[in-house]
Recover the amino acids of this structure.
């Protein structure tokens, strides 16, 4: 008779083990048992329930060692141990740390320290949201919270500048896709739904509410509080956050390109003459809003939704939930990127399949070159005009950064500090073109400009805007460039001249940062540098230079096109009228002859020539403006592809030791006379 296995397993233990192992067939179970071995046993019979005792304890013998006693006879004590289920570390719920400051349901409780930080930030010269006096009042209000007032100048002046950008963007977009044009809207939505969503968001930007609220606040600018800006900030930032995940080049520009394709199908002539300018204006305004205004208004938004100070880089992520709740949007509301064009992709694939590998590589190189430097016919024509006016300079090779200072230093009587600007810095080309246009403005101010009709009911006051630009032009040269930029550059070079090691000190770094900020804020909007701290420049109440240049180019382009049309209709002989200019056929007037006016006289046939008209002066001005606009307002121009990063003229161009003085024995007048003789031969 076989020996019965011992009952060594607790009741139900084998069944629980089987469930943990899963389904096993008998053969597999036997094979596992043979490999593992072990003792064979059966389950114990269940014990009858014991009578309940007080509590849920059990008797267990434990050894207790009593201090001071030894020997083999260690006393044993019976103690009752309460059974408690040991916590399973795998089942412990981990609670993530929740930032209550980013919980929209929690009320804002700003501490004194955080309030002072935010107020000091808002009072910086870059923002001007608060005045120094308001910060001082806030600092002395240690035990009570003072009224959160806003700088009256910010209310009356700064916000008007910002609103102008939004208005320019929205009005230009609405002219492309009017809200009442249901047929065009539905057609565009059906063809390109993602692009339509972008354009639709921009055209419904609530500038009407911004304008209404701003007018209400500007009626009492000295009593405006931060909370009074709540509706304005909501209207401004809601579309910005909806569009923030999109790429400017691949999504925003592409959306406008697809809309332009639709408009060109409807009316090619109108699309080219009217809508191209609107698209350019919209894209420039959008870029300024996303790159500048979004940053310049963030202290105001932070005071409305946060009780903690954050830098610009971390604010929108650290207070994401509060911001979205404040704007009444969610992450799901954000717009989707524009998908690539299917037809264009197919055509590209078909073409690449049919051409040889060598041809494909060549075409790829050509396409890459065009993308880096898309120079239009207007820019090329402008460079040719500059070559006629100032021969002896490689105008067609401005991308190689020829040194322009020796040629123009005596011609325009430039100040001594101009020689410090590095030839490889695009700001040298910008400022030389500024001086050329200033010379042209001496005659352009006597041209009688009139309004340009945008639609049958709407007209743009060209005369007012151009006169404003001409009036502010000396301020850009004298106040912004010479006083703010050149003064700092000269000081920076003097510090380096005394000791090259001093460039690592805090003060020279501060000067260098200010120089970069001036370039970015006024002259080169796509210029990039590392720091985001505020500049220490003086307060200026004029628009950025780059935006005024683009406005001037847009108006002059329209006027020049109108003059071309009038010349075909008879010109001066028929006294044909032009849109935007009242006296195109009158002789231009320079009350005091300038080096540039004498050159224009010579190119047009002398002082008695009938070609010396306001129309011709408009053409010359447009040519120079087109080149300047391309350099500063086209992010693919050579101004943004130069990685030298050297701001001052230096020995061997190494950017280490400043170099004072350069070759100035060039005679530009002699070069012009020789060029004029060669043309007449």
């Amino acid at each position: 008779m076989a020996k019965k296995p011992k009952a060594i397993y607790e009741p139900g233990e084998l069944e629980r083990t089987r469930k943990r192992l899963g389904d096993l067939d008998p053969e597999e179970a036997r094979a596992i048992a043979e490999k593992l071995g072990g003792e064979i046993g059966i389950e114990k019979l269940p014990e009858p329930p014991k009578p309940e005792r007080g509590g849920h304890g059990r008797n267990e013998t434990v050894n207790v060692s009593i201090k001071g006693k030894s020997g083999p006879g260690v006393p044993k004590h019976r103690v009752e141990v309460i059974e408690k289920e040991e916590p399973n570390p795998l089942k412990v719920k981990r609670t993530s740390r929740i930032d209550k400051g980013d919980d929209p349901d929690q009320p804002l409780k700003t501490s004194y320290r955080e309030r002072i930080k935010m107020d000091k930030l808002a009072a910086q010269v870059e923002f001007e949201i608060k005045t120094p006096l308001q910060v001082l009042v806030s600092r002395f209000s240690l035990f009570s919270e003072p009224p959160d007032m806003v700088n009256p100048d910010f209310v009356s002046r700064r916000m008007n500048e910002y609103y102008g950008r939004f208005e320019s963007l929205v009005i230009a977009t609405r002219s492309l896709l009017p809200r009442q044009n249901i047929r065009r809207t539905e057609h565009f939505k059906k063809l390109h739904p993602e692009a339509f969503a972008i354009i639709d968001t921009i055209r419904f930007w609530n500038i009407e509410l911004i304008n209404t609220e701003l007018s209400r606040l500007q009626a009492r600018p000295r009593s405006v509080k931060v909370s009074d800006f709540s509706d304005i900030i909501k209207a401004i930032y809601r579309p910005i956050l909806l569009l923030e995940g999109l790429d400017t080049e691949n999504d925003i520009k592409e959306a406008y390109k697809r809309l332009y394709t639709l408009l060109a199908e409807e009316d090619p002539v109108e699309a080219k003459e009217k809508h191209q300018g609107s698209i350019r204006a919209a894209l420039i305004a959008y870029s300024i809003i996303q790159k500048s205004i979004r940053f310049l208004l963030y202290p105001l938004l932070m005071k409305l939704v946060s009780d903690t100070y954050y830098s610009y880089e971390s604010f929108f992520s650290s207070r994401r939930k509060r911001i979205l709740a404040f704007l009444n949007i969610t992450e799901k509301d954000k717009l989707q990127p524009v998908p690539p064009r299917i037809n264009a992709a197919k055509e590209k694939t078909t073409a690449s399949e049919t051409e040889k590998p060598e041809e494909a590589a060549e075409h790829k190189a050509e396409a890459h070159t065009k993308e880096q430097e898309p120079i239009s016919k207007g820019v090329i024509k402008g460079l040719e005009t500059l070559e006629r006016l100032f021969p002896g300079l490689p105008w067609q090779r401005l991308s190689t950064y020829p040194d322009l200072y020796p040629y123009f230093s005596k011609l325009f009587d430039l100040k001594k500090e101009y020689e410090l600007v590095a030839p490889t810095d695009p700001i040298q080309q910008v400022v030389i073109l500024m001086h050329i246009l200033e010379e042209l403005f001496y005659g352009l101010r006597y041209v009688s400009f009139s309004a340009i009709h945008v639609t049958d009911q709407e007209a743009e006051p060209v005369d007012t805007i151009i006169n404003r630009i001409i009036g502010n032009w000396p301020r850009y040269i004298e106040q912004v460039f010479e006083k703010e930029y050149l003064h700092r550059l000269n000081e920076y070079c003097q510090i380096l001249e005394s000791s090259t090691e001093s460039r690592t000190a805090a003060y020279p770094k501060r000067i260098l940062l200010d120089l970069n900020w001036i370039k970015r804020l006024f002259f080169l909007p796509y210029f990039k540098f590392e720091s985001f701290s505020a500049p220490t420049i003086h307060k200026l109440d004029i628009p950025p230079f780059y935006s005024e240049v683009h406005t001037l180019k847009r108006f002059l382009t329209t006027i020049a096109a109108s003059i071309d049309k009038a010349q075909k209709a008879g010109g001066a002989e028929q006294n044909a009228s032009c849109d935007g200019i009242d006296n195109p056929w009158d002789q231009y007037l320079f009350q005091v002859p300038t080096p540039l006016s004498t050159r224009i006289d010579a190119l047009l046939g002398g002082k008695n020539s009938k070609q010396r008209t306001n129309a011709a002066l408009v053409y010359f001005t447009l040519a120079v403006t087109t080149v300047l606009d391309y350099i500063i307002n086209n992010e693919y121009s050579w101004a943004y592809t130069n990685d030298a990063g050297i701001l001052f003229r230096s020995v061997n161009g190494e950017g280490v030791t400043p170099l004072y003085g350069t070759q100035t024995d060039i005679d530009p007048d002699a070069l012009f006379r020789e060029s004029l003789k060669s043309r007449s031969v």
Observations:
- The first strand starts at residue 6 and ends at 9.
- The two ends are 135 Å apart (CA to CA).
- The CA atoms of residues 216 and 420 lie 48 Å apart.
- Strands lie at 6-9, 41-43, 57-63, 76-82, 452-453, 459-460.
